[in-house]
User: Which sequence fits this backbone?
């Protein structure tokens, strides 16, 4: 989950689906944003191009995270500390809050003090490519830790 649901979170959704398919793990994955800025819009064209160049198809339409998502999903992953706070504020109890994690906490190469996926929206093409690499590593780590 990210702010607008047009860059990082749709890329993460695609990367998780890819990692799950590669390892024959059955998952339901859906991205969302904490803000309502881009509701109904497709993923950012720059993110789709970066994904396409890396062989990752990024699609979907932006939607906003709803408290009912806590009932639908066993795990909620977020891209940064601001989104973490926003989602935790919606958690109805401590047990639910424990199911919310920073996505890069699953990236085996990430430093414990650097677990955010940076927002590439205001930067150049390199930022989008770096996000693709980050979400793929985190997705592989997440799926590897699931019961097969």
Assistant:
């Amino acid at each position: 989950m990210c702010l607008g649901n047009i860059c990082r979170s749709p890329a993460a959704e695609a990367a998780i689906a890819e990692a799950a398919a590669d390892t024959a793990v059955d998952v339901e994955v859906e991205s969302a944003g904490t803000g309502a800025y881009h509701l109904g819009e497709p993923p950012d064209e720059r993110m789709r191009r970066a994904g396409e160049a890396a062989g990752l198809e990024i699609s979907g339409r932006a939607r906003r995270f709803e408290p009912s998502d806590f009932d639908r999903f066993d795990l909620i992953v977020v891209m940064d500390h601001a989104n973490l706070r926003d989602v935790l504020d919606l958690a109805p109890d401590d047990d639910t809050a424990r199911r919310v994690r920073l996505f890069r906490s699953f990236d085996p190469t990430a430093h414990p003090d650097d677990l955010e996926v940076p927002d590439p929206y205001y930067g150049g093409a390199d930022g989008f490519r770096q996000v693709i690499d980050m979400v793929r590593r985190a997705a592989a780590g997440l799926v590897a830790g699931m019961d097969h």
